[in-house]
Amino acid sequence: MVEAVKSKTPELLAKEEKQVLKQWIKNQLAETTLSLDLIDEEDLEKGSREFLHLFVQAISTGNLKNIEAPEYEPVIRMLKNLSKDYAYRGFTPPEAAIYVFSLKYVLMDLLEKEYGNQPEIYNQEVKDVSRLLDQLGILAFETYTKVREELAQEQAVMMTEIETPISQIWRNILLLPIIGTVDSRRAQTMMDKMLQKILDTESKVIILDIAGVPAVDTAVANHILKINKATRLMGCTCIISGIAPAVAQSIVNLGVDVGDLVTKATLKDALEYAFGILNVELTEKR
Questions:
Q1: Residue 193 and residue 265 share a domain
Q2: Interatomic CA distance for residues 195 and 270, integer angstroms
Q3: What angle, rounded to 10 degrees, do the helices at 73-89 and 41-59 form?
Q4: Helices (H), 90-217
Q5: Cβ(246)–Cβ(279) below 8 Å
Q6: Is there a single domain that holds both residue 40 and residue 135?
Q7: What pLDDT does residue 2 have?
């Protein structure tokens, strides 16, 4: 049975840790892809120093292959936290990946300097260190990607909230001001949120103010008609306000049958109509 050759890298790195750290930080700062406006040099040095120290401790056990072993838990934990931090700060994928791989380049140079004239030792050390740092690099990138995807999903939800800001402006009266273009996806989102809001608040009237919609074509008109029908099925009257003269002419020219759609020129008119439906009388305070 051939006895496994003990790696020489742990002992070498322990001896050269300070020099490796210095060169690693220098290389990171020299990277043209690194946005120093997203992280200051002090934070970079602090994180790099701590990570390298944990890395040196982990490989000092002689394990350069299995990052799932207990000795790598502190390394993995910190690497994941760093990757998450890079994602939250807004670093790009190349900037996130360069953290681990720039350390790899420094270690490759160190091994070449130390064992370059001993090909057999050099090749084995390079193989072990490369495989180890590649595993860590992949883990860092996977963590970064996962966080970025979660952030993208959160932003999508926020954008949906902004696109459909339904508010209760009076008891039993909801308002949805629509700004910008209305495509099929947005129309479906609006309908889903409106129907749920009607159910939650038991509202009897909802006002769709389209003063902020730049143009109304056949598709937009059909979306509005569908929303109107759906709200009526929920026992809620839908009022469309903000009908500009140009929009009114467009609807007529398109030959769209608005049917029983209630339309008003202004939000004020729509609100007064809604009060009439609910038998609400407002008196001027003197």
A1: yes
A2: 19
A3: 160
A4: 93-115, 119-163, 184-201
A5: no
A6: yes
A7: 37
Q: End-to-end alpha-carbon separation of the chain, Å?
A: 103
Kindly state whether residue 125 falls inside one of the protein's structural domains. Answer: yes
Mean pLDDT of 114-120: 91
Write down the mean pLDDT value for the chain.
87
230-241: per-residue pLDDT in tens?
Answer: 999 999 999 999
Establish if 25 belongs to a structural domain.
yes
Q: Whole domain around residue 17: which residue ranges?
A: 9-160
Only one residue has tokens 């009076």, namely: 170
What span, in angstroms and rounded, lies between the C-alpha atoms of 21 and 27?
10
Q: Is 282 helix (H, G, I), strand (E, B) or coil?
A: coil
In a domain, 1, yes or no: no
The one-character DSSP state at 214 is: S
> Cα(59)–Cα(129) distance, rounded to whole angstroms?
10
Token pair for 278: 């609910």
Which residues does residue 207 pair with via DSSP β-bridges, in sequence order?
175, 239
